[in-house]
Amino acid sequence: MYLSESFQMAIAALNANRLRSALTMVGIIIGNASVITMVGIGQGVQRLAENEFQSLGPNVLFLISGNDDTRRISFETPRTLVLEDAWAIKDQVPSVIDVAPQVNGVGTVVYQSNNTSTQVFGVTPSFLEVRSFEMAQGRFISDTDGQRNERVAVLGCDLVDKLLRQFGEESAIASPNSPQGLGICEKLVNNQPLLPSETLVGQQIRLQNLSFQVVGMTRPKGSFGGTNQDDLVIIPLTTMANRIVGKTNLGAGTAVTFISMAAKENQSRAAKFQVTNLMRQRHGITGKDDFEIRTQEDILRTVGNITGALTLLLVAIAAISLVVGGVGIMNIMLVSVSERTQEIGLRKAIGANHQDILIQFLIEAVIVSALGGAVGTAVGVAGVLLVGATTPLLTQVSGVAVLLSVSVSGTIGLFFGVIPAQQAAKLDPIVALRSA
């Protein structure tokens, strides 16, 4: 018998039991769709993380106080870094272009009758360049502001939006022509002009019961590590240390939260090595470091390992559906063999041999699994596109995942169809006709 005839007969047999064939494909459909969707989501999470870290700026390194042990046993952040460490790195490490020491805190910001809690950064002017922030309005913190201990502030666009609109309603100074629901950050991203009422530059705000003049607003920066970089107040480091943190002067031994550094192009590893040696020498360390240096490469590698492991786990769980679908195919095919005993006996009586029967039932199993794989692929692709359209994840259909899932589903159909096909092929035609 020609292969084309076996194929036609397999199609006819499946068409005669459409509902049963459709139900048999459900497991394969769910398995394929799950695998493709999970891979797409996993890759989307990884791309989102990469974009967040890249928003920090190129070749940025972070020098953080304490190590894993000290941070684990203490409720407070260890204070092992001082301001002099930052200046030493800038002066003595050739692979570092600039340094931005930083003191972090949390404070309540009040504007007129609106108030909100936000993060407060005490920084130097180099922060703008090192961390790749851009100004949307006004100016950034200057050296003069730091020298004079000025009470000036730069606000993130999200914070400005919160202070101008209370509980989704426009404040007293906001223009009624401003589109409801369209935030200031969104307008800046879309390069839409801001209304005169959509700014706080030149206005006075209160931070921790101190009056500050707003001198600028940053462009949208996005989130990093779950922290909104557009919801913040930036003030001079001297002002942060003297007036917010409570230091009497910004002198020797002033603790900083961490130090960010901009390394020369493709010299992040060299900068990490040199800074590590310098810090160990400055702190007189002979054992375990009392600091930690993190580069973008290190963070991305860690995030990649985590997301890769989670994606693999999700794919493994989804692949169970493919196995369940294969068992369903074998079960239904065994039922089909028992129901078609007379057909098998008649075919053998008129000349069909062992191979003809085997091929026909294998073709039926492969058709069911391949068709289920195609439908599952379509559902999985639609799921990936839907997730990408409705969430911030940068999802993308993986051609490797599609090819792999379709190949696996076809192989599963072939594998689980062997036993029923062999059972059908081994039937004795006389016994089959008598039992009909």
UniProtKB/TrEMBL annotation:
Predominant localisation class: membrane
Family: Belongs to the ABC-4 integral membrane protein family.
Compartments it resides in: Cell membrane
Domain MacB-like periplasmic core: residue ranges: 21-276
Topology versus the membrane: Multi-pass membrane protein
Example of a GO cellular component annotation carried by this entry: plasma membrane
Protein name: ABC transporter permease
InterPro entries linked to this entry: ABC3_permease_C, MacB_PCD, Macrolide_Exporter_MacB
Keywords: Cell membrane, Membrane, Transmembrane, Transmembrane helix
Every ABC3 transporter permease C-terminal domain range: 316-429
Keyword Mitochondrion among record annotations: no
